[in-house]
Design brief:
The chain is an alpha+beta fold. The protein has 4 helices and 13 strands. The radius of gyration is 29 Å and the shape is elongated.
């Protein structure tokens, strides 16, 4: 049973790929994106706790800031726990017809993930229709660890009692909230 049923040579694959790319119209069709998948991952102490999948409609190849904010705010709570948004990523396969052969030979030259630091409009380029189903937005939510929560609470309590007071000692006057000006004697 060590014999191969069909022997395949890598040079044959490249030759056939050239024929398929030249004769097929599947890879040449660029189309607009009507919707994207949104994957939401919930993390507890850097462990995957839960995930969700949505399909979000786009307008003019754009996921608007308003729609993204709506998705984020509606998914902040999961199983009575409050999560913080820690990452926004876009996965978009934006290959041109000319680059498909290069991609098949060496995938390491291509990067399809874009990171966003804030909630903003996310644009998608019109691409080959076959790849549109793979375009997605990925959101990561995480809870704060107990140590982080206690340290921030301690800082907040400490800062609540702090009061900054400035004195103008160069002039012999002090101004308060009163309308009258007082002079020192």
């Amino acid at each position: 049973m060590d014999e191969q049923v069909i022997s395949i040579n890598s040079d044959d694959i490249v030759e056939n790929l050239d024929k398929i790319l030249d004769q097929s119209s599947v890879f040449k069709t660029n189309s607009n994106i009507d919707s994207v998948n949104c994957y939401i991952f919930y993390l507890n102490n850097n462990q995957l706790h839960n995930y969700k999948k949505y399909e979000i409609n786009t307008t003019e190849n754009k996921l608007s800031k308003k729609e993204l904010l709506n998705v984020v705010l509606s998914n902040v709570k999961q199983q009575n726990k409050k999560y913080d948004l820690v990452g926004i990523y876009k996965f978009e396969i934006n290959l041109d017809h000319e680059n498909i052969k290069t991609f098949c030979k060496d995938q390491s030259k291509f990067d399809f993930i874009t990171s966003y630091k804030s909630i903003q409009d996310i644009y998608f380029k019109p691409c080959i229709e076959m790849f549109n189903d793979n375009n997605s937005v990925i959101l990561f939510f995480s809870t704060k660890s107990l140590a982080q929560e206690t340290s921030t609470k301690a800082k907040m309590v400490k800062n609540k009692t702090k009061k900054n007071v400035r004195f103008n000692l160069k002039n012999n006057t002090t101004q308060g909230n009163n309308k009258t000006l007082r002079t020192r004697t």
